[in-house]
Design a protein that fits this description.
heterodimer; A: mainly alpha; 70% helix; 4% strand; globular; B: alpha/beta; Rossmann fold; 2 domains; six-stranded mixed beta sheet; four-stranded antiparallel beta sheet; 10 strands; 41% helix; binds adenosine-5'-triphosphate; binds magnesium ion
C-alpha cells in the first residue's frame, strides 16, 4: 500500500516537473500547428533544441547574459520556422511534414558533429549556463524541499514555477488568439485552404505566422529542459520527443487550449506511475522475474502508454477535452 | 423576366429602357440587346475581358478562349457539356490555376499575375463546384470568414479585442441577415459539416456574398438544391444583379439558364462556340451540334421534353402489353 502511495507521489511530481512543462510547451506549439492550422510539423524538437542551445551557446561560449541567450533562442526558432515554411507552405501539406522530420534529425546530427564541437560542445554538449537564472529564485536553491511526499531541489522548484507560468501565459495567448478573427482564419485553413483563398485571405502568410508562433513555443520548451538539467546536449533532443508531444496533444484533445497541457501532465504521470509501480511489483515478486525484469520496465511503460492511447482513440477519439461532435464530422 | 424576353423581339431596340428610370436588371439586358450574336462580341461596358487564354493538361486543351467580354451588372450564364472547360476557366480567372498563354482583366486591371486572394480582394469572388464548407467551423463562423478588411485578422490586433469587437458585431449582424435570406439562420451555431449538400451550396454562396463582391462566379450553385429552393435561389441571384453585382454562373439546367441570364456563353471542348441572349442559344446550330452532341434530337424545352416522355411511356406501355401477351402464350417467360 505504501508503495502504491509512493508511486503515486513520484508520478505526481513527474506530472508537475520540468519534463511535463517541456512536453506541454512542445505540444502547445504543435496544437497551433496541427490542431488549429492543420500543419504537419514532425520536427518540433528541432525548435526546442535551438531554444536550449540558444541559451547554452550564448552564455557558455559567447559570454552573453542569460536573457540575451533567451532572445537568441527565440530568434533562432523564428529563423528555422521561416526556413522550413517559406519553401514548403505553398506546397501540399505533406511537404512540410517531410522537411521538418528530416531537418530535426539533420540538425541534431550537425550539432553533435565534430566540426560543430567548438560551438555546440559536440556529443558532450554544454553546461554551466543557468546560474544567472537559478540565482533569481526567491528561495534558497541550495537545499531541498519536501512537497507532498516528494523531494524537490530549490532550483528544480524555481524552474517548475517559471515553467508553469510560461505554460499559463502561452495558453492564455493561444486562447485569446483562437477566439479572434485571426484564429478563425487559421481554423478555416485547417478545413480547406482554397475556400479561404477564395475569400481573400493570404493563406501562405497565415501558415507562416502559425509555424513561427508554434515554433517559438517549442523553443521555450527546450529552454526549460536545458535550464533545469543545467546542460544542453544534442542527444537530449531526439525526435521521438516530437511524437510524445503529439501523443500528449491527442490525449488531451487537439484544438483545445488546455488539451496539450493536461495531456502532457497525464502522459508524464502515466509513464512515471507505470515505471515506479512496475518496479515495485517486480521487487515484491508479484510479477515473476521470468515475465518481466526491472530492466524491461523503461520500455514496457511506453507500450502501456501506447495501449492507453489506442483505447482512448477507440472510446474517446476527441481526447479528454475534445468535442466528440467535431471529431465525428470526419466520418461523413 | 422570361415574359419580358418574349414580349420584346430579340433585336427590337427600346431606347426608353436605357434611360435612368428603367429597373436595374433591364439595363444589362437592354444594353446587350443590340449586340450581334457572335463569339467574342464587344460588350458596351465589360467588367471582365479575356484575351487568348489557353490552358492545356498534357495533350488536352481544356480552355482556349480567344476573346470574351462579360457585361457589368448582368447575369451571364456559362454553359457547356461536361468537360467543356467551364470550371477550368473559373480557376484561371480567379488565380487558382495558371494558363499557358493569355491575359485577362477586371475593370481594365490585368489579373494575370495575381494570386487567388488578391483577385478576391479586388472583388472577384468565386464558389466551387465541389462545395467547400468549412466543416468544423460553425455556420456563423463560415459567414464571418467572408467579411473583408477585418482588423482582427492581423496577429497583433487579434490580441487587442477592443480594436475589432465593434467590427465583429457589425459583421455578425450582416451575416445573420444573409443567413436569414438563405434560410440558414436557425443553423447558425451548428457545425457546417452537418449541413446537407444543398445547404452547403447555400452556405457557400452566402459566404461569398459576405465579402461584398463586385463579380461573383458561381460554379453550379443550383446543383443538388431542391426545386423550391432553386426558385428562391434564382430570386437571390436576380437580387444580386439588382444590387449592381456582375454574376457569372455555370449551370446545366437550361430552364434555369433561360430564366435568369441576360447573356449566355456556350463552351465546348475548351472553346467559346456561341454567345448571345438566352433565346438565341436553342436556335444555334453549333450549340445543338456540340452541346447536345449525340443526343441530337433531345428535347430543348419542357414542353418538348414532356411530349417526348409521354411518347416514350406510351411506346413502353405498348411494348409491355405485347410482351405480356407473349408471356401468357409462352407460359415460361417472366416479365421484368
Ligand atoms: N488538373 C487537371 N489535370 C488534368 N486534366 C484536367 C485538370 N483539370 C481539368 N482537366 C480536364 O480539363 C477538361 C475540362 O474540365 P472542367 O472541369 O473545366 O470541365 P467543366 O466544363 O467544368 O465540366 P463539368 O460540367 O462536368 O463540371 C476535362 O477534360 C478535365 O478532365
Ligand atoms: Mg465544372
Amino acid at each position: 500500500m505504501s508503495e502504491l502511495i509512493n508511486a503515486f507521489a513520484i508520478a505526481g511530481k513527474a506530472a508537475l516537473g520540468f519534463q511535463a512543462i517541456f512536453f506541454a510547451l512542445l505540444a502547445i506549439g504543435i496544437n497551433v500547428h496541427f490542431g488549429y492550422t492543420g500543419l504537419l510539423n514532425f520536427g518540433q524538437i528541432a525548435f526546442a533544441m535551438l531554444g536550449g542551445f540558444g541559451i547554452a551557446i550564448s552564455v557558455s561560449q559567447w559570454g552573453l547574459p542569460f536573457w540575451v541567450g533567451v532572445l537568441v533562442g527565440v530568434a533562432a526558432a523564428v529563423v528555422l520556422a521561416l526556413l522550413l515554411g517559406l519553401p514548403t507552405l505553398r506546397l501540399r501539406a505533406d511537404y512540410l511534414a517531410i522537411v521538418t522530420i528530416a531537418t530535426a534529425e539533420g540538425l541534431r546530427l550537425v550539432f553533435r558533429s565534430v566540426s560543430a564541437t567548438p560551438v555546440t560542445g559536440g556529443t558532450r554538449g554544454l553546461s554551466a549556463f543557468n546560474r544567472d537564472f537559478i540565482d533569481l529564485a526567491p528561495w534558497d536553491t541550495g537545499r531541498r524541499y519536501d512537497i507532498l511526499g516528494t523531494s524537490w531541489s530549490g532550483g528544480e522548484l524555481w524552474v517548475a514555477a517559471v515553467g508553469w507560468l510560461l505554460v499559463i501565459l502561452f495558453s492564455l495567448l493561444v486562447w485569446q488568439l483562437m477566439r479572434s478573427p485571426w484564429g478563425r482564419v487559421l481554423k478555416a485553413i485547417r478545413e480547406d485552404e482554397d475556400a479561404v483563398r477564395a475569400l481573400g485571405k493570404n493563406v501562405y502568410a497565415y501558415k507562416l505566422q502559425a509555424l513561427v508562433l508554434g515554433g517559438v513555443f517549442g523553443a521555450f520548451g527546450g529552454m526549460v529542459y536545458a535550464v533545469n538539467t543545467g546542460s544542453a546536449n544534442p542527444d537530449q533532443y531526439q525526435n521521438p520527443n516530437t511524437f510524445l508531444a503529439y501523443a500528449a496533444l491527442i490525449l488531451g484533445g487537439a484544438a483545445r487550449v488546455l488539451g496539450p497541457v493536461i495531456g502532457s501532465m497525464l502522459l508524464l504521470f502515466i509513464l512515471q506511475f507505470a515505471d515506479t509501480g512496475l518496479r515495485a511489483l517486480i521487487s515484491n515478486g508479484v510479477i515473476p522475474d521470468e515475465l518481466l525484469t526491472s530492466t524491461d520496465v523503461a520500455q514496457i511503460r511506453f507500450v502501456l502508454v501506447g495501449l492507453g492511447l489506442i483505447l482512448l482513440l477507440v472510446f474517446r477519439p476527441q481526447g479528454i477535452f475534445g468535442d466528440r461532435r467535431e471529431v465525428m464530422l470526419d466520418a461523413r | 423576366m422570361p415574359a419580358d424576353i418574349g414580349s420584346h423581339g430579340a433585336h427590337a431596340a427600346r431606347p426608353d429602357e436605357l434611360s435612368g428610370q428603367a429597373a436595374p436588371q433591364r439595363l444589362a439586358q437592354a444594353a446587350l440587346r443590340d449586340l450581334p450574336w457572335e463569339v467574342g462580341v464587344a460588350k458596351p461596358d465589360p467588367a471582365i475581358v479575356v484575351d487568348g487564354v489557353t490552358r492545356t493538361f498534357g495533350g488536352l486543351t481544356a480552355v482556349s478562349v480567344d476573346h470574351l467580354e462579360i457585361q457589368r451588372g448582368g447575369i451571364t450564364g456559362l454553359i457547356g457539356p461536361n468537360g467543356a472547360g467551364k470550371t477550368t476557366l473559373f480557376n484561371l480567372l480567379t488565380g487558382f490555376d495558371q494558363p499557358n498563354t493569355g491575359t485577362w482583366s477586371f475593370d481594365g486591371r490585368p489579373l494575370g499575375k495575381l494570386s487567388p486572394h488578391q483577385v478576391a480582394r479586388l472583388g472577384v469572388v468565386r464558389t466551387f463546384q465541389l462545395t467547400k464548407a468549412l466543416s468544423r467551423l460553425t455556420v456563423l463562423q463560415n459567414m464571418l470568414l467572408g467579411a473583408q478588411g477585418q482588423r482582427g485578422e492581423s496577429f497583433a490586433r487579434a490580441l487587442l479585442p477592443g480594436t475589432w469587437r465593434a467590427q465583429e458585431k457589425a459583421n455578425t449582424e450582416r451575416a445573420m441577415e444573409l443567413l436569414r435570406r438563405f434560410k440558414l439562420d436557425a443553423k447558425k451555431d451548428d457545425f457546417a459539416g452537418i449541413l446537407s449538400g444543398g445547404q452547403r451550396k447555400l452556405l457557400e454562396m452566402a459566404r461569398a456574398l459576405m465579402s461584398e463582391p463586385k463579380v461573383v462566379m458561381l460554379d453550379e450553385p443550383m446543383a443538388g438544391v431542391n426545386p423550391a429552393l432553386t426558385q428562391s435561389l434564382l430570386g437571390h441571384v436576380k437580387d444580386l444583379r439588382e444590387e449592381g453585382m456582375t454574376v457569372i454562373f455555370v449551370e446545366h439546367d437550361m430552364d434555369v439558364v433561360r430564366d435568369i441570364s441576360d447573356w449566355v456563353v456556350v463552351m465546348a471542348a475548351g472553346q467559346v462556340i456561341a454567345e448571345g441572349p438566352p433565346e438565341s442559344i436553342s436556335q444555334n446550330k453549333a450549340v445543338v451540334d456540340a452541346y447536345l452532341g449525340a443526343h441530337h434530337d433531345a428535347p430543348l424545352t419542357v414542353e418538348d421534353e414532356d411530349r417526348m416522355l409521354a411518347e416514350d411511356e406510351a411506346a413502353l406501355a405498348e411494348e409491355r402489353r405485347g410482351r405480356h401477351s407473349a408471356d401468357t402464350t409462352d407460359g415460361k417467360r417472366t416479365t421484368r
